[in-house]
Each structure stands twice: as structure tokens, then as C-alpha cells.
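Please, structure for the following, as C-alpha cells.
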Amino acid sequence: MKLLRKPALLLAGAALIAGSGGIGLAKDKKDDSPAVIAARDFDKNPYPSTYHAYPGVPTLITGATVFDGEGGRIENGQVLIADGKIVSVGGAMADMAVPAGTVRIDGTGKFVTPGIIDIHSHLGVYPSPAVEANSDGNEATAPTTPEVWAEHSVWPQDPGFSRAMANGGITTLEILPGSANLMGGRSVVLKNVYSRTVQGMKFPGAPYGLKMACGENPKRVYGSKGRMPSTRMGNFAVDRATWIKAKEYRAKRDAGKLETRDLAMETLAGVLDGTILVQNHCYRADEMAQVLDMAKEMGYHVSAFHHAVEAYKVGDLLKASDTCAAIWSDWWGFKMEAYDAIPENAGLLYKAGACVVIHSDDENGIQRLNQEAAKAQGDARRIGIDIPDAEVIKWLTFNGAKAIGVEKLTGSLMPGKMGDVVLWNGNPLSVYSRPEKVWVDGALMFDAANRKLRPVSDFELGQPGEGDVK
């Protein structure tokens, strides 16, 4: 029977070739049945940003030391903001066309930076007050939950948002799911402004992220339930199997053969397309190296490793893969995979040419990122790595913007970018300095000297001490 079937198959193949003009097999046609069309032609942006910048006025800051966010420093500089954008930045003698009605601010003795960016925050999903009713950051019901979106848990009234601005100069932040799962869901990038809805805070044009986690957390959470994964090899096995399914889903999507939507696979297909950025919780150097290999195998890119306390061991690998290390200055020892941390982590990464980002992962730490960066700078200096202040500011601004995919829009004081600006009352790398004024898209959102320009959450209205900056 096998011998009889082969000629028949060959004849059938020859007929296909002949029918296609002799240039190859006929291509599969896309299925245009109603079910397939419904799976293919759906709204790719069902929760769009409704953010609109608050009203602002043209503003010129003069006489300040300016850190442009990309490593530049200008003494006795000028910064002009108008129509929500950075218009020009230069020295005292720079020729700037200043619009009529411009507010002029004397920045003598003060410092200007781009708005500070925190790429690892859980504000809104683990808000204050921190009670069980508000604990919405981990969907710890399955090892992979890429179908969930952090924005569907964000509580815009979290008082932490206003404190992050007033004390830390935070203008942009990425809100991530927690790290209980290997794939915890989509992150969302927010502008740090008051809004009744999360859509009103969503950063226009910012890509989504996929929160992934390796190491202790997933194996502890699911191993304790008698489920896979319970080991690091289990972590990788589950990840790889899930990526294989995602690649199959994407191939069907591209061939027009999907018959039903799969929210989890849609997220992972977006990662494979390069439109969703991987933000990977990972502590140990050996695991980061293995994740980079898995990314090559499966066809995606890791935008940043978060926490990354052992990143100093693999700075060359991170540089080669164009992957940022989002780190603390000196948190360590709270679990085994955090044990081999060193305070010189950022300095050694900088020396290796890798992308360094200082992040918080904490509602209090987000108010002091400038001080965390200064500590890392000091620890580097003690081992002979001297990092200029302007480069350290880059860890809080441009590098973070790059890691979350918005560096063309914000993160530095370049003409045409969003007018996200902080005026500090002293060098931001001093423990004695704090934000004096904060602009978001050119609108003055915080002024330490004006109680009416201190954003207050609805949740806090009528509370004792309302509007106090602490």
C-alpha cells in the first residue's frame, strides 16, 4: 500500500505545482469565515488613553544648573517650556525667542532636570492604605497569567502618586504586576497626574510591558501548592512551553486562521512582534544569562532586568543584548537570591557600558530615587569609578524612558519632547535637596511654595493634614 500511495502523492504534488504556474506550492488562503474575522478584526486598544495635559503657560527658567538627562550639564543655563513641550535649552547667552506672557523663574543656585521616571512601581495596585481589600498586584492563581493587565487594578486615588511627585519629582512611572508568576501580566505606563480614571493617567503612545519573573518567587508560590514549577528548571520549562504555544498562536494569526481570541496569547504575540516590552524580575547573574538565551531561542528581547542585584557579574552580556539593569542602590539579603548584592553594582555596570536604571519597587523609595542614585554614585567612587553627576541623573531619566519605550517622548530636556521638568532647590544628588516645582507636559503640577499646587487624592479630601508635604 505504501508503494502505491507514493506515486499518487507525487502526482498530486505535480498538479499543485502545475496549477501554480510551476513556481511552487499554492499558498494557503486566509479564512474569511465570520468566526475567523471576529478573532482577527478586534479592537487592539480597548482601553485607550484619555490623558489630556493640564493647562500651562510659557515658562522660562534662568540661571540654574541644568542636567539635560542625556549626560549633559549646563552651568547658568536656561530652559524654555511652551505649549507643553521643551522649546529650547542652553547657556546664559543662548538666543531664545521667548513668547509674550512668559513666566520667568530665577533659578540661581538651583538645579533643573527632566521629570524623574520610576520604571518599577506598584502604586495603585498595592496602594496606601495597604490593606487586603486593596491588594491587587498578583494574580497568583496560575504560573503564567499574561492575560491580566495591571491597569485594571490601578486605583487612581492612591495617595502615593502625589507623594511621589512632591518628594521625588516623579512625572512618569511604570506600574507592574507583582512577581508571584513567571508571566504576571501587562504593565502600564502612567503620567503622574491626578485623574478620576486610569485611562486619564495613561501615557499616550507608551507601549505595554510584560512582567516576567524568574527565581525564588514563582517556584515558592507554586511549589508550596504542590504545583509546577517548584524548581528553577521548572520555571524555565513552563516559560519555554508557553512561548512555544505563543509562537504557534502568532503563526495562525499571521495566516488568518484564528477562530477564537486568546487574551494570554495576544499579549505574548505582542512581545514576539516587538510591540510589548519584557520587564523581567531577576536577581541572579546565572539566571539573567539563561533568560537571555531563552529570549534568543524564542525570538523576543528583554528590555530590562529588574532588581538585578547580581547584574555586576554580567554587565558585558547586558551591554551586548542592549538590556537595562533596573536596580536598587543597596537593598540586599532579604532572601537567598538577594544575598550576593553589592552596593557597587551600579558603578560596575556603568564601567561595563551597560544601561543603568535606579528603580523603587516601594511607595517610600519612589520618593527618594535621587538619593538612591547618589548613594550608588558614592559607592562607585569608593572603588575608583568616578561618575559625573550628569551621568547619574541619566539613570533616573533617559535610561528609564528607554527601558519602557518612551525615550523619544520624554526622559531628557531636548526640544520637542514633553515638558516634564523638575526645579530642585539644590543639587538633586544631595540629601538636602528636594523638588521645588514640578511640571508635567508644561503644566505646573507642584509648587512647594503654593499650597494650592499640591495635588491631593480624592481619598484624602477632608483628612487631617490634607495637602501637607511630608
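Confidence is low (pLDDT under 50) at residues 1-27. The chain is about 30% helix and 20% strand.
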